[in-house]
Amino acid sequence: MKDKDLSEIRSIIARHKLWDFIFMILGVFVLMIAVLTFMALFSHMLIDGMPRLSLDFFTSFPSRRPGSAGILSAWVGTTLVMLVTAAAAVPMGIGAGIYLEEYAPKNIITEIIEINVTNLAGVPSIIYGLLALSLFVHQLGFGQSILSAGLALALLILPVVIVATREAIRAIPVVIREGAYALGATKWQTVWDHLLPYSAAGILTGVIIGLARAIGETAPIITIGALTFIAFLPPSPIKPDFPFISFEWLMAPFTVMPIQMFNWVSRPEEAFQINAAAAGLVLVVMTLTMNALAIYLRYRMRKNLKW
Question: How many domains does the chain have?
């Protein structure tokens, strides 16, 4: 090889390294902007809301007096709504993902479904609220209840769960499937005994990220008619009498943390702004906890797998 050719190769490599370095600096700069912005907002919320956090704040109902107002009905409503959301979205989303990836025939209809599922993940949440208002509240007669809210948020995160399930299953090496089929396993045995255990970490991550998104959504909840001020709790899911489980709470009116924050932020008094900061701090901690749980469980599951 001539010296001229070697010089050109070195020049190309140096130019590519320069662009790699520029891109790395740009990426770090953008990341720092995002992280510093979040830290600034979170610090402001922490400074304003931390003094307000107390046991009374968690065990008191909302009030017109900011000093005695709490988030009891809001966090209870959020917990129940997320319970319905998880119960509806997780089995349906995982099942749909398994079917599309392993069982659905590869034809034009399946391709159309896959494209629409992917596109639905980016639809604004208000659209799901309008759909839930028409379908669950009016057509099915569920009313402005916990059930309607949970199903609305389930529709919102369903595409996320489906896509996460498909990507997690798709990442499993083909030799896992071929080995199972070679030993005489059926399609379902291959999915249940091999694909799902190996893809569980990725599926779980997608599920928790979807739930973390749903817990902070406001537009669908407002659309279906969540109450902005509620000073009572829904009926308890657990009863002292047989059969010990009650579903009356599903049809109860409700409020959630984002709605309670919106109610306080819209008030002019400074004390209500502090209450909103404290509620926001609780909501951020809940969201970060869910994401941290996803990371931890994914790490543990991948560590225990043997390829």
Answer: 2
Which tokens is 299 given?
């790490």
CB 226 within 8 A of CB 145: no
Torsion-angle region of residue 142: left (phi > 0), alpha (psi -120 to 50) or beta? alpha
How many other CB atoms are found less than 10 A from the CB of residue 58?
A: 15
Distance CA 248, CA 267 (A): 33
Whether residue 65 sits in one domain with residue 14: no
DSSP string spanning 85-126?
Answer: HHHHHHHHHHHHHHIIIIIS-SSHHHHHHHHHHHHHTTS-HH
* Domain co-membership, 120 together with 13: no
Last residue of a domain, one of 32, 50, 68: 50
Give the residue among 116, 114, 135, 106 at the shortest CA–CA distance from 220: 135
CATH number reported for the structural domain that contains residue 180 in this entry: 1.10.3720.10
Q: Are 87 and 155 in contact (CB under 8 A)?
A: no
Residue pLDDT, tens place only, 273-307: 888 888 888 888 888 887 787 778 777 777 766 55
* Same domain for 60 and 10: no
List the domain range (segments joined by +) for residue 76.
53-304
Dihedral (CA of 113, 119, 121, 123) sign: negative
Distance in angstroms (rounded) separating the CA atoms of residues 188 and 296: 29
Q: What is the pLDDT of residues 22-42, one digit of tens each?
A: 888 998 999 899 889 888 888
Measured N-to-C along each axis, helices 146-170 and 125-132 cross at an angle, to the nearest 10 degrees, of 130
Q: Which residues contact 168 (CB under 8 A, 6 or more apart)?
A: 199, 200, 201, 202, 203, 206
Instruction: Confirm if 129 and 217 have CB atoms less than 8 A apart.
Output: no
